[in-house]
Design brief:
The chain contains 13 helices and no strands. By secondary structure, the protein is an all-alpha fold. The protein has 2 domains: 46 residues; 212 residues, MetI-like fold (Orthogonal Bundle), CATH 1.10.3720. It is flat. The two termini are 44 Å apart.
């Protein structure tokens, strides 16, 4: 009897030791991957505090230098205002993200909740538009903006976000298994209007999808360089990516430290948006695992 108990204890100890070793290995891998993910951002921040000579002489350094104020003077001493560029980028990215999220979700809801004759044809058209690169339509888009006198209007960088085919596709695929039509029918029987149903019932269900697409949309619109570079010609309308690009166009000397500083200022809002919205994504994943 005692021998059997001892054997059972040994087996339990071996299993616990193997579990500890397995968890330790997983933690080591996760820590290593986390360091690899954070390292480029840290190097960018460090280079924002160094001058051009230090960056060119020693390309990698984990210790900040003391040229941050000098780099800021170079960055703010150009013929554009970084504060105005930050506000322009924030306005464009936030406005385009809000419009894209709402109208894409509304279109996806119409694809799920209603039966109409051209429903499948409309979805096929959305899929076809996804295959067309934005650069192909840029010439016609610029000509339209030029004829209407809207080439230096930030609205032309916001309003086109209403038509976001890839986001409509994503929202439709998410909403198809997540939305129970019984809830919609019950709300209609109770006298609820369609927009009330969408705003109060459907949108809360789509929070994880909205958070995911909000991150992608905000990052894409914030980092968008091609379209603003084509439409905007006035320095007071420039966005942060345009300003960072102009820092590389100095014919006398390119200050690499100021470029890294501009990149750091460009990345910080993206990190904040991700940290704010990531909890909704995690909550949605947890809810889906519980339902499964």
């Amino acid at each position: 009897m005692a021998a059997n108990n001892k054997m059972a204890v040994d087996i339990v100890e071996k299993k616990s030791n193997s579990v500890i070793i397995k968890h330790t290995f997983i933690y080591i891998i996760c820590i290593f991957l986390a360091i690899l993910s954070i390292l480029p951002f840290w190097l960018m921040i460090v280079n924002a505090t160094r001058n051009t000579i230090q960056i060119q002489a020693n390309s990698i350094s984990l210790i900040p230098s003391h040229y941050l104020s000098f780099n800021w003077k170079v960055f703010s001493g150009k013929d554009f205002n970084p504060g105005v560029g930050f506000i322009n980028s924030l306005t464009i990215a936030a406005g385009a993200t809000i419009l894209a999220l709402y109208f894409s979700s509304l279109t996806a809801y119409a694809q799920i909740a209603y039966e109409w004759k051209l429903k499948n044809a409309f979805f096929s058209f959305i899929m076809a538009v996804m295959m067309v690169p934005g650069q192909v339509t840029m010439i016609g888009f610029y000509q339209m903006c030029f004829r209407f006198g809207l080439t230096n209007n930030r609205l032309m960088l916001i309003l086109p976000a209403i038509a976001a085919p890839s986001m409509v596709f994503f929202m439709r695929q998410y909403l198809q298994p997540a939305l129970s039509m019984e809830i919609v029918h019950s709300a209609r029987i109770d006298g609820a209007k369609e927009f009330f149903i969408f705003n109060k019932i459907v949108l809360p269900i789509m929070k994880p999808a909205l958070a995911t697409q909000a991150i992608f949309s905000f990052v894409g619109n914030w980092n968008n360089l091609f379209t603003p570079l084509v439409l905007l010609t006035q320095p007071k309308k420039y966005t942060m990516p345009i300003m960072v690009t102009l820092l590389r166009g100095d014919i006398y000397k390119t200050e690499l430290g100021s470029i890294y500083l501009g990149l750091t200022l460009t990345v910080l809002p993206l990190i904040v948006v991700y940290l704010v919205l990531s909890r909704y994504i995690i909550a949605g994943v947890a809810l889906g695992s519980v339902k499964g």
